[in-house]
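Budget justification note: compute hours in this period were largely spent on complex prediction jobs such as the one shown. Inputs:
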Amino acid sequence: MRSAADKPIFTADLAGTCVFAIEGALAAILGGLDLMGVMALAFATALGGGIIRDLLIGAAPPQAIRDWRYAAIAFVAGGVTFAFTAAVQRIPAPVLIGLDAAGLALFAVAGTEKALAYGIQPLIAVLMGMITGVGGGTVRDILLARIPAVLRVDIYATAALAGAAVIVLGRHLRWPVRETAIAGGAVCFLLRVVSVWQHWQLPTAGGPHP
Amino acid sequence: MRSAADKPIFTADLAGTCVFAIEGALAAILGGLDLMGVMALAFATALGGGIIRDLLIGAAPPQAIRDWRYAAIAFVAGGVTFAFTAAVQRIPAPVLIGLDAAGLALFAVAGTEKALAYGIQPLIAVLMGMITGVGGGTVRDILLARIPAVLRVDIYATAALAGAAVIVLGRHLRWPVRETAIAGGAVCFLLRVVSVWQHWQLPTAGGPHP
Amino acid sequence: MRSAADKPIFTADLAGTCVFAIEGALAAILGGLDLMGVMALAFATALGGGIIRDLLIGAAPPQAIRDWRYAAIAFVAGGVTFAFTAAVQRIPAPVLIGLDAAGLALFAVAGTEKALAYGIQPLIAVLMGMITGVGGGTVRDILLARIPAVLRVDIYATAALAGAAVIVLGRHLRWPVRETAIAGGAVCFLLRVVSVWQHWQLPTAGGPHP
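Corresponding output:
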């Protein structure tokens, strides 16, 4: 499904994979996992969302299994994070948050577009875009025996959802494809970054929780 | 695979989806999750079992991905539960248990029949029926970082298993399809309801657990 | 994909399934699960790795769903372990470790070969071999709400990885198939057994873990 014209997209895809892999590796290191755990969480965090999406839309084997370069990028990023943990941990939080938001935006947009290309209905395509963005972090948290952060705190999945919804809306209104992708990615990125800056949270259900 | 004659089945299917989604949303609210977590657990609890079954029997994309109405029902049920938590929590336990047992029976019967329709062997078709019934609750508990209740307590998966076994037996003995489905559903429903009423539990292995 | 000539392989495959099922059942019993939990963990531990591999390489329905004998073996092994827990627990640790290492070697080799047969690229085929070996134990630990042991301690996934790499290397260098399989299995088995004997561990990232 890829051609020469997809090269910028492919490059961006690998960049997003790299950022998510670093985050997965850091979470594994903080959780006290060994080298195998670090590599596994780098892989799962970076590629879990896309793999789940591909299985759900009927695109087996998933792209990350079909093309070894995704796994290679994840392992290199995981290995570098393992070898230079102290240096990676010195990356300022705003930089990591910005890179992560960019990766989230990219995955949400690309995931939604792939679902639509496979004939998935609009509501579900939005879901697939969101899962592409947040699925990896969810698998990471499950492997760390934690309740996935995305279900508890922050405007994160919501940002992916908003970006994905822009893509589906744009397709419905016949907006130009490239501009729609940029708009969707910008909505996701900005919503995520502003929500961190402003400490926005989703509501929880009122009343005491027994 | 659906025709006009399937309309009652489809309606029942959506009803079961609705009940399971409410239960997933309530579990998320009690676990302190935010709105995104409530919607995610409504979706996963209601549709996780069917999605796992469809992936395993080779029916990708799963029905819940193919037809947006399943997700829509789950989200509406999740949203209503979130908005009116106190009211939903006032539903008497026997009503919820009865509705849940009905949903379990329906999912177990429908899941077994779908597996058989896809040429799955009898023993595995029984398993697929059980997974359709209990898979959603299992995914819900994993997302809440808990040992799935279905593995620890209650006659729940066992009831689904019994109902599914009736379907496979009936198919083997060439019983009429509709009556077999009703018998299988009744076995599952009654076994579940009576086991709650009588506090039946499965055995655990004897001796001390270090 | 199987022929009469595959009979020894099939027998070995069922033997590995049996060993892993016993281990899953024991973990369930130690975790206090009921009979349903014991059977579920026997199934998941024995067959989870192969099922994940088959879904990822596009071989749906997975072999363990297609052929009921795998599930039957897992359930028989789980049931025997449940009924004779004390006797199974008296199996000396070295015997269990040796049998487990043999099962791991067999699954890693067979998983890698199946991935290659499905046209999966070498790096990913090695991953698929490893996942075949360790996926079941990972699913078991997730169902027990624990961080998978394979991510934290021991030379276990690493042994599977080494065995799988031998298979891919041998295929690349056109070694004879049977001898390559034996060499890969031996590497996995010996690395696992020696690492237990010598208390080898993978490194963790340096520095304190906040």
